[in-house]
Amino acid sequence: MLMPKRNFYDLYLVPNIDKVKSFLQLARYLGYSGVGIQLNNYSFDILKHVIDLSKRIGIKVLFRINEPRYIEELAALSNRIVTSMIVKSEKEFREGIKLRNIRILSFNSLDFARLMTKENLNIIKQYPEKFIEVTIADLINAQRKERAFIISLLHKKIKLINSKSLRLIISSGAKSLNELSSPRCVRSFLRILGVKENRILESMSDNPKIVFKLPRRIIISSD
């Protein structure tokens, strides 16, 4: 019996407006079924343009909001939204985990390795609705010594990464096309790091798929 094809997602792309089409095309080519996009302009025309592009290219899209001031405006325009917060310090983590309107706490790989402790994992357990995202663009851009340092920190936290209490999402955080990697490449890296296969699939497929189902359905309107 054939197993159903698994869909993979990259929930955090940060393209310039004029590069959105190229990002969507490359993500589709690499094997992603859906992507999350953070824009610097959430006007009706731009949202409609991105959604129309995604339909023509054949890839699902949702919009990331990292700034609270955009939440009401974007929610009035589109059903494809998810709220998130970039976390770079212990203080931001402690504040963000308690915010009801934030669905995803997003760390780059270095900040995640620094901040993810047993104590903070126990805090995360108290908020099972939250997703913890790790972006890997900083690893791709790092110099050899810095990359080795980050990987060594992550390896030391492998038991925490493999914890079932962590609703983990792995995303690129790509701001350029060169920072996008195929699901196969990301999976290979995570295996080398010591992440269990079931956790890899959860972080790149199952959990992002849940996020895609979270936004409520609102018909786009220019009114």
Write the layout of secondary structure elements.
Elements: E1 8-13, H1 20-30, E2 32-37, H2 44-57, E3 60-65, H3 71-75, E4 81-86, H4 90-96, E5 104-108, H5 109-115, H6 118-125, E6 131-135, H7 137-141, H8 144-156, H9 158-161, E7 168-171, H10 183-193, H11 197-213
Parallel strand pairs: 1-2, 2-3, 3-4, 4-5, 5-6, 6-7
Overview of the structural elements:
- The longest helix is centred in the last third of the chain and has 17 residues, at 197-213.
- Strand 3 (60-65), helix 3 (71-75) and strand 4 (81-86) form a beta-alpha-beta unit.
- The chain has helices at 20-30, 44-57, 71-75, 90-96, 109-115, 118-125, 137-141, 144-156, 158-161, 183-193, 197-213; strands spanning 8-13, 32-37, 60-65, 81-86, 104-108, 131-135, 168-171.
- The chain has a single domain, classed as TIM Barrel, CATH 3.20.20.
- It starts with 7 loop residues before the first strand and ends in a 10-residue tail after the last helix.
- It has eleven helices and seven strands.
Features of this protein?
alpha/beta, 223 residues, disordered C terminus, TIM Barrel, 7-stranded parallel β-sheet, 11 helices
